[in-house]
Amino acid sequence: MLLNISGDIFEAIRKARSITVLTGAGMSAESGVPTFREAQKGLWAQYDPQELATPQAFHRNAKLVWEWYEWRRNLISQASPNPGHKALKKLEEMKDIFSLVTQNVDNLHKLAGSNNIIELHGNIFRTKCFDNNHTVETWSTDENIPPQCPECGSPLRPDVVWFGESVPSQAFSMAVTNARQCEIFISIGTSSVIQPAASLPYFAQETGALLIEINTEQTPLSPIMDYQIREPAGKILPFILENAFN
Ligand code: APR
Fold first, then answer.
1. Ligand 1 atom closest to residue 232's alpha carbon, by position in its atom list
2. Does residue 162 contact residue 59 with C-beta atoms inside 8 Å?
3. SS3 for 130-185, per residue?
4. Which of 76, 100, 103 to mutate to test ligand 1, by most ligand atoms within 8 A of the CB atom?
5. Is the pTM of this model over 0.85?
6. Rounded CA gap, 228 and 124, in Å?
7. Low-confidence ranges of the chain (pLDDT < 70)
């Protein structure tokens, strides 16, 4: 049901022993990070992100994919956590058991100081080699593009989950456990269409958790939510924290 956020949400969040949160690109929208599906700006406008973030695209044109991710890393590195990210850090501090599952690769939850983060789709600031997943911290910029792994010579790529690739199995099974065990599950800023992340609210529902959706728009999962809050995350999360704990 659509609410103007009455007291029962504040009370439920105050009283809950365990909360699991799932975030998507809408969480970072107020930090100026374009959501994956927003039109690309300038040079990259001609490319569809879903055509670039795939192993096939990398095989076809590794240099183009590497340069696109360099562009995105540079764009995202200029963003900073918004009040919504900071409110989730505070919520973690107020709860005995708290888990933050994110589909975002922008590192903003970490920068906001959140600790218990499960990165379902990886992290754009982590780099690995294509063939053997060796994590690589530094590489010389004068060699060919993409740079090669110092250990095995395989081309480097961002440590993010591409379309057609599966999410890290350990990360997802931890996310399922935390969804099943929580008293409140809060889905924030995700279109709830990408699997397996979009299945997590169902695991929480199965074990009787209270389901809250914070999204500026309706999503396919809105009907199963106990509460739908149609507000921007960066505005409403601090408001909820303020009213639940002060
Ligand atoms: N506050 C809350 N919700 C917002 C805000 C905001 N300020 N701004 C946008 N939204 C909502 C939109 O209504 C939309 O439902 O955030 C959602 C963003 O949806 P997507 O762009 O589809 O992002 P996401 O759900 O994270 O995509 C999942 O798909 O593209 C792949 O791997 C990529 O991690 C991504 C995954």
1. 1
2. no
3. CCCCCECCCCCCCCCCCCECCCCCCEEEEEECCCCCCCCHHHHHHHHHHHHHCCEE
4. 103
5. yes
6. 30
7. 1-4, 35-43
Q: Write down the pLDDT at residue 39.
A: 52
**Pairing between β-strand 227-229 and β-strand 117-119 as defined by DSSP bridges:** unpaired
Which of 163, 216, 230 gets mutated to test ligand 1 (max ligand atoms within 8 A of its CB)?
A: 216
Residue 35 one-letter amino acid:
T
Question: Which residues are known catalytic residues?
Answer: 121
CA distance 195 to 211: 18
Confidence (pLDDT) at 143: 74
Is 167:82 a contact under the CB 8 Å cutoff? no
Name the residue type at position 204.
A
Q: Which amino acid is at 22?
A: L
Can you say how many angstroms the Cα of residue 182 is from the centroid of all Cα atoms in its chain?
Answer: 19
Give the Cβ contact number of residue 142 at 10 Å: 5
- Buried b / exposed e along 25-53 (16+ C-beta atoms within 10 A): bbbbbbbebbebeeebeeebeeeebeebb
Sheet bearing 227-229, strands edge to edge: 117-119, 97-102, 18-23, 184-188, 210-214, 227-229
